[in-house]
Sequence to fold (1068 residues):
Amino acid sequence: MNSTRKKIGLLSCLLISTHAVQAAELEASDNVLKAPYRATAFKPDPFYDNREYDERSQLGIYGDKSPVDTPRALLELGYPIYQKGPIPEASYWLGKNNPVTSQFSVYGDLRFSAVSLGESDSTISADMNLEVDWKLTGTERIHLSLSPLRDEEAGEFTRIESLDGEEESGTEFNLKADGFFFEGDIGSITGGFSDEPHSWNMPFAFGKIPLEFQNGYYLDDAITGAAIAVISRNSPKLNISNYDVSLFAGIDDVDQAFPDDSATIVGVSAYLDAHSGHWEINAGASSSDTADFTAIAVGFTKRYGSWLSNSLRVLNSSGSFTDAAPPTQDDDLLSGTLVVIESSLITANPSTYIPYLNIFAADGSPQQLAGKNNILEKVGITFESNPVTLFSGIDPVARNNAGLAIGLEYLFKLDQQFIIELGYSDILDDTNTTSPAEINDTNLALGLRYQKNINTSWAYKIDFVHVDLGENGVGEPEDSTHTKFEIFTKF
Amino acid sequence: MTAPPKLASHFLFILLIGSVSTYSFANSNEEDPHLKLYTESDFPSAQQCAGCHEQIFEEWSSSAHAYAAISPMFHKFEQAINNLAPTVDSFCSRCHISVGTTLGESRETPIWERSKVALEGITCITCHRVNTPYNKSNGERRLEGGALNAPIFGTSEGAGLKEVLDKKDFYKVRTSDSGRGQKIHKQAIQFEQLKQSEFCVSCHQVAVNQGIALEVVWNQYIASPAHEEGITCQDCHTGKVPGKAEGYEQLPAAIIAGKATKPRKHTNHAFYGPGYSIAHPGIFPHSKEDPSWDIKELLAFDWRSDWGSAEFEEDIEDGRIEASFNETWANAIDRVEARELIDNNLERLAERDKMRQELMENATQLTGPFFNGQQKAGKSLSFEYVLKNINKGHNVPSGSLGAQPQLWLNVVLTGPNNEHIWESGYLDSNGDMADIHSLDVRKNKIPFDDQLFSLQTKFLTTNIKGTDREMYLPVNFDIDQLPFLRPSPQPVTLMSHPPGVRMEARSIPPLGSKTAKYKVPGDLLKKPGKYTLSVRLRYRAEPIYFMKFVGATEDMIQSMNESMLDIHPYSVSFTVK
Fold:
């Protein structure tokens, strides 16, 4: 060791002696006595001795960097996203303390799929998600989401389908907005127009806002309305490192499980980092011409020991149909409780080799506050369905049923993915009047997925699902086997 | 479903769109020709500033700001995340290499091919050539170009500069491009935000597109008692005492031709923080004058050996030892001179170590052990320590959470004969805590530390279906493996986190505390006698597993482990009956 490093060692000794003085002022149990600090009592840190100097690796730190083929957005106006070069001069039309540096970009993805739906049924389809973003400041922006090749609401898609021996084809050109909102921060905006920068946060958004709460179990919808949040607070008393609270209200475009487009919702979501994990708590109410209900959800996520990642989620809804509802609607179809236990094992390769087991049980008909009623799609890939490609697995409706998805995900070097999954769903109680005839008693499915990047913009994905249906009470069970090949690009 | 007459043509149209998408409208990495292009001479280097502001240069030269472009972890991480999420592009470089990025240098350019001022990272003009009062701009700040004699932006109206300009002959200065004397700024323009906390927000509250936060300290600060009391970031991080708002020194801003300007409030440009350098000490801290060797030559110097020390060189000369040298360092005189540079730099880094130690001591308070129940042989021993965050300004730990800084308790129980009985917070053979990321734990070489008290913030990503798992990067690879970090389709500021990715904090809020509870099994306390509990709060800038993930070198890992801080270390003894 050279002389300078010895000096550093002496410095460390000096620091430790300082600590010894501090130790004299310690608060502790009455029956302890101060003792000389024993640094050697601890297990040793890694020790490095006589390691050969690696000149090549030192040079490589700075010299082995390589260019990456950075995919650009379809259209970029203003200064481009994350590019080198000078930042343009700002304008101040949002106030002198909220400078505007405009960035307009259009990006998204484009997907082509060929699906075999068993026997001679098949589809070939195209789909596109187009995002139009006009960033004004770091906090204010206007965003538009389009799906120009499909109109899901109208059931119009861009595809060629061959079903039951009949061929049909069509293209869709749809400019209806899936989402169209302004997102900003009241603190930044008011600060911008005042003499002093206003140092507080209050994000808000209005328009047609896509929101997702409780990983989509509670709410997964683009609602027309507004939302506001208090963010990045903490509570020393309650030992909460961070919490955020969002309030939201939707007055239109609220999807519900029952056919009624008059629904409005109001709700609150809270996120708390506490208990060595995180909580998400949601509460809200929905009101429409035909039904009123409330929905609450609680979720807690944590890693346990060295082996388990887990989330426990409980969703409960309770409500009744109004006199305007069709007489066939039963109040039980609005009320129920869903419990989901999501687990994955922490393996020797915790980021890329992930065995998982997700178990659910739905008592009654638990309702999302807003969403497309395909809540069990969050449970497993064998519960997924796609209206564009018609690729589908187990019925994703949570209604008086229980089941699970057990699978294994492998992500290689984060450049490809393989998933194998077994999905299962069964009716809890055949005698329950809320059991709809269309839900099959027993669903057992095997799902496979493989996807791989072709380059930094293109990738392909192969999905396979075989569903073994039990008796459903309305006819003979029909097993189904779907296979999908999808190639997609992001831009 | 409508049936158009020529379906094939529609698909061709779609394919055309797809083809266009693969072509860069912005023509890849070409600069926008409408933007003014700068040259290196538009951005004076800190070395130039040191001509008059030597003390400030010296304070800054070993700071985290000065380190930003040299940091080996920055370069390794930046390359790794670009490989995995290719739309990141120059996002990281915009802050870390502020001037170089403004000058249009590509993110992958080796540091020895960059402009000199680019290597200075967050250099003088990164702050003093900004006159736009940015808010949360995620590191995207415009730097105003201009040579050394162009106006500079400061916290005051420049009374000191005015005095110097009034006495040009006395101070021997000039503001013109030619002539005699020290070249200085024509004008100092007050930029009010520079002395406010708001100035720090553009780089210290940073989210990548889709709202993935890497720096959250600003949001923590504005929810803090310090903010309510009007204590600024600058008060604690550039004041007289590291981490404490105890005022500022009064010192001259400049010494010109040996003549000091009038003393004034001195903001310490060391920018106190707990981070540290793991770079080759030949190239960092920055020097006021260029060394005699270029960066590549310095990196070839085996700084951990005794090369260039008097004793070593005498042994070599006298043939008592043999050693082989690379071509650059074959000459003993070169080695001796380089050793002098490196030793000097190591001493400067040691000075910085004192500051960061002081900072962390000032920010935290550790008390305990507090026993629960009696201490008897054969009975389990329950006790706890309480760690308090006594800084009013933000959580502990905080700062650049993208780097995942670690703060944890290391507690050891030794027996009557000083034998090691039990420990928590120990490290594996790589230096990682024995948590789920430890390679040794994963290979069952060492036990999992099930009582570990760690305040490290974790990034989580959602599995393809189901729960969240800890992930090295705040990027989700489960939906597909082409994670494009573009502005989110959702208003993510209202959803706490973007779908599929989140940050989970374990840190202690300002003036809050957390209790570390431990239980030593009774079968380990076999005999009565005097036992000792030793404790230390440990800090490290980066986890080793994360360093390995991004391809850090062994030397980087060694330096990271060797410079860990041990905060509040002490021992107590007690009697087990």
Q: What stands out?
A: The longest strand of chain A covers residues 219-235. Residues 23 and 34 of chain A are 7 Å apart (CA to CA).
